[in-house]
Design goal:
The protein has 7 helices and 2 strands, in the order ααααααββα. With 127 residues, the chain is mostly helical. Among the domains are: 30 residues; 52 residues, Orthogonal Bundle (434 Repressor (Amino-terminal Domain)). It has a two-stranded antiparallel ribbon. The longest helix is centred in the C-terminal third of the chain and has 18 residues. The termini are far apart.
């Protein structure tokens, strides 16, 4: 006769139950692009349509293990997310801002107009 899983968990030492709980939390926050898309109840066609690409391109991206940061950012933006890159060290996390949107970076007044034009062109391309 089978036993309820809850009974097995309750018999485990507290430390092991805590490790299991933490592992479950980690699994919920770590997903591949395709898993994330499905969790958001989006189809490849919907994501492709917002990026003006074919569905096959989204399928290819979802199956790649090596992807350009710019491509990943576009796909995540199409899903309603913001890409953040974090370097995790044993004692701290550091967000890498090298890839931050140009509008969030302080600009010199002399270059502001030129950069603003580039940002606006990029925004139009990403829609």
């Amino acid at each position: 006769m089978s036993k309820p899983f809850r009974n097995l968990i309750e018999k485990m030492p507290a430390e092991r139950r805590q490790r299991i709980t933490q592992k479950a939390k980690n699994l919920k926050t770590q997903m591949a692009i395709g898993e994330l898309r499905r969790a958001l109840e989006l189809t490849q066609e919907q994501v492709a349509g917002s990026l003006n690409v074919k569905q096959a391109a989204i399928s290819k991206i979802e199956h790649q293990s090596d992807i350009y940061i710019g491509t990943l950012r576009k796909v995540l933006t199409a899903m309603g997310a913001e890409l953040r890159i974090v370097a995790h060290f044993p004692d701290t996390d550091v967000e890498i801002d090298q890839f931050a949107d140009l509008q969030k970076t302080p600009l010199l007044d002399v270059k502001h107009e030129m950069v603003s034009d580039q940002v606006n062109r990029l925004k139009r391309l990403s829609k």
